[in-house]
Write a structure and sequence with these properties.
This protein has six helices and eight strands, in the order H-H-E-E-H-E-E-H-E-E-H-H-E-E. With about 190 residues, it is of the alpha+beta class. The strands form two sheets. Strands 2-1-3-8 form a four-stranded antiparallel β-sheet. Helix 1 runs parallel beside helix 3. The longest helix is centred in the first third of the chain and has 19 residues.
Amino acid sequence: MTDQLTDGEKQTLLRLARAAMEYAVKGKALPPLDLQSLTPLLREDGATFVTLTINENLRGCIGTLEAYQPLAEDVREHAIAAALQDPRFPPVGDAELNRIRLEVSRLTAPRPLEYSTSEDLLKRLNPHVDGVILKDNFRRATFLPQVWEKIPDPAEFLSHLCQKMGARSNLWQEARLEVHVYQVEEFHEAN
């Protein structure tokens, strides 16, 4: 990632995410974002995932792989979506807000990962560095690089990602999948 966020920009994004989540959970209208008050980097289009955890357990995670709106707006949108629209979880309740820890992952643009065989694919992955996108026709799924902490074995990582995509776990060994990788700049609220 060429332009790293400053600590101040990271704190701004975390504050924006927290406020957006709290407004949405409480059913209040989100005030418009004053883009002109933000740094140029926060006004540039950016792709993010916002992850919510309670006691280090996932509580919601939503984002995008392609940049299509200002970074600050992207963080607000995905903080709300992670709280209210992650299909794996019920919407976050007001009583949970003070226990939720927010994490923001700012993504680089995905790039294709060329490989010849399933063994070659395993060798080309960079565990703990690469986020991975698998695509098979109309199905697609991704794991952020942080998922390597829970699934450090590359073969197991790809098998779980196939399952997330709604496919058999060994599809990555049997079929030629489209694979993209990306990196993230990750930061989170203090405990």
